[in-house]
């Protein structure tokens, strides 16, 4: 331990610079010779905005000043500001502390064991400096106590750095707020990108800059749209991302919506409308639920992909359209080709780079991070109350469930838990599916049950639900909302059972 002690003594006496990257670099070079160390990072805790601002980090490749922010939920903020949180912590594994696990999963997923030294100014927590190794179980309390001597220097640096950033970009936080609003619909970061979605994201990064056509496949609610968005973001094109839900366009409007129309092309066309192909020019066109596109529209889409030209309804001239195409479906397209519901030639055109997004039950390691992310978003959107956060017991429960509705179902379960929480304590109801089935059968005496095929049962049940909802599928009070399923999923089931 002596070498570490004397190195830290030298550092405390001799860190002359108030420049953050220079200070981190000096520390890293001296300390890595006397303790296990793969990197050091420093970040700032912003209580008002309930987030962490990464400031800088150093590793064997050099130093890096950082930007961006990591949102925290109420539970995480409470943990950080709690007077019980020790001034330094030794984590044998980052998994041992939910806040550190969340923060590092965003930008240092390789870190395993960490010494955290809190940076306090006038006793107020303003951030941390973290010393990490990529291996678990590398540190002890003696090392942590020695490293704690560096906290004053880095607390000062963190405070100065944040002050400078605030002055330099008083409109930066405004811009970030804009991004946050977008995050509530399509998240900027893909949760699980370093865990259960690591392989998918590897493909995303390699295909993104190529403008190659991508077909994203996966069950309903797995995050296909999130992946499509990530491809667009990693392509750095900066141009439009136009999403079209093919299942949501009424069949008689498909032409005018995809291709656009000229003024007067039909009754009610009181002005010219640019179609989605035109709107996506120079950027990305994302055709979601492509399996729902009727055959007539499939033929027209194929023609656009072959010629890269479209004609507006009621128009005469052809318009060149240049866009990157991403499609997605939860349907089995080869099976649809076999039954004549999907054109094989179109499938060849769109299936250039297939990307499969695995269901949540096959990547359960993502559940804790997703739960924390959704909880934070639900609290922000739905309540002003404080919440206890996701306890270890809750996480176990969430991990045991099979999530037939995938990530979307997890998000709904968390929203419901926040809405129905009492005294800030969350209660997860994972019996949604079971409850509705028992509601149908409970009216019949047990020994009187006629066993019928599941599909017949489902078809009859959906038929009754639709009658109850006066035929309304989409929107408030509609069958999809009452059944808590995606309207497109419901629509395809209703079509399958020939109810609509
Ligand atoms: N990896 C992820 N990180 C953060 N949020 C996610 C992730 N995956 C899914 N979500 C969220 O879950 C919900 C469902 O995701 P999304 O709409 O992308 O699924 P989908 O596969 O396109 O569903 P569908 O087939 O029904 O269209 C969305 O609110 C999305 O923001």
TrEMBL record:
Transmembrane intervals: none
A UniProt-annotated Pfam family: Sigma54_activat
Every Sigma-54 factor interaction domain range: 190-419
> What organism, scientifically named, is this protein from?
Ferrimonas lipolytica
Q: What is this protein called?
A: Sigma-54-dependent Fis family transcriptional regulator
Q: Name one GO molecular function term.
A: ATP binding
Q: What Gene Ontology terms for biological process does this UniProt record contain? A: regulation of DNA-templated transcription
The reply to whether Acetylation figures as a keyword in the UniProt entry is no
Q: Fetch the PANTHER family from UniProt.
A: PTS-DEPENDENT DIHYDROXYACETONE KINASE OPERON REGULATORY PROTEIN-RELATED (PTHR32071:SF117), TRANSCRIPTIONAL REGULATORY PROTEIN (PTHR32071)
UniProt KW keywords: Activator, ATP-binding, DNA-binding, Nucleotide-binding, Transcription, Transcription regulation
């Amino acid at each position: 331990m002596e070498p570490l002690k004397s190195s830290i003594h030298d550092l405390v006496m001799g860190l002359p610079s108030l420049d953050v990257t220079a200070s981190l670099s000096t520390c890293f070079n001296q300390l890595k010779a006397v303790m296990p160390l793969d990197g050091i990072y420093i970040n700032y805790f912003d209580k008002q905005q309930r987030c962490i601002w990464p400031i800088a980090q150093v590793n064997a490749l050099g130093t890096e000043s950082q930007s961006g922010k990591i949102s925290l939920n109420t539970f995480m903020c409470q943990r950080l500001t709690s007077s019980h949180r020790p001034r330094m912590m030794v984590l044998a594994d980052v998994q041992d502390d939910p806040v550190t696990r969340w923060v590092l999963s965003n930008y240092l997923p390789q870190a395993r064991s960490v010494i955290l030294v809190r940076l306090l100014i006038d006793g107020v927590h303003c951030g941390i400096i973290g010393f990490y190794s990529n291996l678990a179980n590398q540190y002890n309390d003696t090392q942590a106590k020695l490293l704690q001597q560096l906290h004053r220097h880095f607390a000062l640096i963190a405070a100065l750095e944040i002050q400078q950033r605030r002055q330099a970009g008083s409109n930066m936080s405004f811009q970030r707020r804009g991004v946050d609003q977008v995050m509530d619909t399509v998240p900027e970061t893909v949760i699980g990108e370093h865990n259960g979605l690591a392989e998918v994201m590897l493909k995303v990064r390699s295909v993104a800059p190529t403008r190659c056509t991508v077909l994203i496949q996966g069950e309903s609610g797995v995050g296909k749209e999130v992946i499509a968005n990530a491809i667009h973001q990693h392509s750095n094109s900066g141009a439009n991302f136009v999403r079209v839900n093919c299942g949501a366009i009424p069949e008689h409007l498909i032409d005018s919506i995809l291709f656009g129309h000229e003024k007067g092309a039909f009754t009610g066309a009181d002005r010219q409308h640019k179609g989605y192909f035109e709107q996506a020019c120079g950027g990305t066109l994302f055709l979601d639920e492509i399996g729902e596109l009727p055959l007539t529209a499939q033929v027209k889409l194929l023609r656009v992909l072959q010629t890269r030209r479209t004609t507006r309804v009621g128009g005469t001239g052809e318009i060149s359209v240049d866009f990157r195409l991403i499609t997605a479906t939860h349907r089995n397209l080869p099976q649809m080709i076999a039954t004549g519901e999907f054109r094989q030639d179109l499938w060849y055109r769109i299936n250039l780079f297939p990307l499969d997004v695995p269901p949540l039950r096959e990547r359960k390691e993502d559940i804790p991070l997703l739960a924390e992310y959704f909880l934070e978003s639900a609290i922000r959107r739905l309540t002003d109350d404080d919440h206890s956060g996701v306890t270890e017991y809750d996480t176990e429960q969430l991990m045991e469930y099979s999530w037939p509705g995938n990530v979307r179902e997890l998000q709904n379960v968390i929203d419901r838990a926040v809405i129905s929480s009492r005294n800030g304590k969350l209660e997860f109801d994972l019996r949604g599916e079971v409850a509705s089935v028992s509601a149908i059968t409970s009216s019949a005496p047990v020994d009187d049950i006629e066993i019928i095929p599941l599909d017949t049962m489902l078809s009859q049940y959906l038929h009754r639900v639709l009658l109850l909802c006066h035929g309304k599928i989409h929107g408030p009070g509609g069958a999809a909302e009452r059944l808590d399923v995606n309207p497109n999923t419901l629509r395809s089931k209703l079509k399958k059972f020939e109810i609509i």
